[in-house]
Every structure is written in C-alpha cells, then in structure tokens.
Amino acid sequence: MSIDYVAFRRELEAFARKSCPAEIRAVVAAGQKITKREYKAWQMILAAKGWGAPSWPREAGGTGWDIKQRLIFEEVMAENDCPPLYHHGLGHIGPVIIRFGTPEQKARFLPRILDGSDWWCQGYSEPGSGSDLASLSTSARLDGDEWVINGQKTWTSHAHEASMIYMLVRTSKEAKKQDGISLILVPMDSPGITVRPIRTIDGWHHLNEVFFDEVRVRADNLIGEVGKGWTCAKFLLERERLPPANVARLELVRRQVARLVEDAGKAAAGRRDFSGLHHKLLMCEADVKGARVMMAQATDDLIHQRPLGVQPSAIKMTCADVAQRLTSIALDAVGPEAANRFLAETDDGSADVPAATWIQNYMFTRSRTIAGGTSEVQRNVVANELLGA
Predict the structure, then answer these.
(1) Does domain 120-227 have CATH number 2.40.110.10?
(2) DSSP class of 100
(3) CA distance 63 to 257
(4) pLDDT at 262 over 80
(5) What pTM was computed for the model?
(6) What is the mean pLDDT of residues 141-163?
(7) Active-site residue, selected from the candidate residues 38, 126, 161, 240
(8) 38 is catalytic
C-alpha cells in the first residue's frame, strides 16, 4: 500500500502544534538547554500516541515507519520547536538490545525506554581510553550469578540524572584487547557507584566522571556473548552518528539562529550591518540540506544491510562543523557587549537571557568536534577508506 506522505506530514504538524506543551516549546525555541524534564515529558506524550520510537520495528514497540516518514517526522518536530528524541535510550542502547538482546532482555528493557521510565547514559570513555576505546580497563568479574565491576568512566553525559548506564567492561585480559570486552547494563542506584560532575566552559552541567567500586549487577544484564562486546560497540557507534535527529537538531538550531539574527537586526535599527550574517546563514542552510541527503542515504543503507563505509564519519564531521558555525553566527548577532555574560553569573535577574543563552551554546558546541570521536580521527577514517592509506 502506497503512503500518502503529504497527509502524513499534515498529521504530524497537527499533533506537534496540539500536543507539545507550550512551556517545552518555549525552552527549545529560545535555544536553552533541554533537560531530562523536557525530554521525558515529550517522550511520554509520544509513547502514548504510539510514536515513541520512530526508528524501531513494530515488533519491538516502534512505529515501523520507512526512512522518508522518519525524516519527515524529524523535520516537522524541529519546525515546531519540539525537543529532539533523547538519543541514549532510543538511538543507542535500544537498537543494540533489539539486535543482540535475548527475548527476556527485550521484554525487560525496551518498554521502559519507550515510555521514559528508564533514563540512560553511556559508559565508554575512561581517563586513559578515549579515541583508543579498546584499551579500556574497567573490569567485570563473574561471581556466582552476578558481575562485580571496578573502575572509572569519564565524560559521561547525563550520568547525574540517569537511572541506567550501558557500559563496556573488560571481562578478560587473555585475548586480544577487543575480544576481552563485554557490554553490560547497570542500574545507577547500585551500591558502589559514585558520580562527580565535570565542569565545562559553557556553565551547563552535562558531563560527569563515574566510579565503580565492587558494584554488583545480575549476570543476565550482559548483552550478547561474554567477550564480544566490541561487536555491540561497533554496531552502536555506527548508529550514534546516524540518527536523523542529529540533522533535525541542526535544522532546529539553524532556525533558532535565524530568528535571533532577525530580531537583533531589528533591535539594532541600522546601527549594525547584518548582511554578512544572513549570507553565512544561507551557507549553513545549504550544508544542513546536504547533511539531510547524506543521512537519508546512510539510513537506507542500514535498512538494506549495505556497508556504511565512511558515511557515519562524514555525517558526524558535517554536523559538528555546521553546529559550530551556527553558534558563531549567534555570538556575532548578540554582539560584543554580551560576550562576557553567563546565566550562572547573573542570578540577580539583570542578565540578557537570550544573549547569555547563545554564549553558552557557543561554548557548548566547541566540544562537538571532540565528543563521539574527534574530527581528526574521522578525517583519518575517511582518508584511509578513500585513499587506501
């Protein structure tokens, strides 16, 4: 049966306008930090509609939408200032459980991701293992029907508000380093877990270091085979850089910055020339459209189980670059007089909130070319693939 994509878009638009609470849309439209409060409230609304997991198959509780429907969904939600879907559960560990989990694990974990009952974070990087993730040392030993975990994870986004962490652990030192790694799911309220914040220049709390001291977790929380977690990790990392929400988020930021430039131009009343910023915005818009085309092709390849090649790296680099350029435009729009203002430093209510927010956005996006694999590493991946180096 053919799909009426025009009618589908109209249905989405009507739903977004009617169902996304005004207070949530205001946070998104202003470019403010989207917290668990906004993400979870919106996820519960989507789940009640049956749209909680646009990229999951129907048998796992998803929509079963095709790639065009999924891209339309992301576009419409961004156009209406709805929050992007929270990636750790829906885009990362959810698909891993669907692919590698047992029926019992799917029944335990997937419904709680869909309705927002569980909130996830990722335990991959360690103080000595970033780009060389296979060198990780956090260990897990089997003791009866429990795994006992010791070690440390760092740069862990949202660990301070997560209820679950999916993490890579070393279960063997005898095999080559990739073969001794396993993937395990751990409740964050387990005894022996300590979370400490990592303060960043943007003034927002999103990164943490997490310590594990004799943390016990049931043995059947291990996903896939013991020592084969690297296979799960590669599967996840490919999808980490591919969710359509990545490009939709870019479009959302582009629209936010365009509004900011327009409002700043009106406020300046001819005292400043904004034509250069408008030109930069047009160039960013073109790159966002290009990223959307790359995303559609890569997702289609995933669906049809074709090799992805360097597409995840190319998309990741493009999204990081455009995000930084957009927030640089926003910083130019708010002007030099606001450049030293931060919300955290102006609790007396005297802050120019829109200006301070975009300064924080600018600072935050400096990390986009580092987090999830540095741009230097991604360029090496592309060069090796294309040039055979």
Answers:
(1) yes
(2) H
(3) 32
(4) yes
(5) 0.83
(6) 96
(7) 240
(8) no
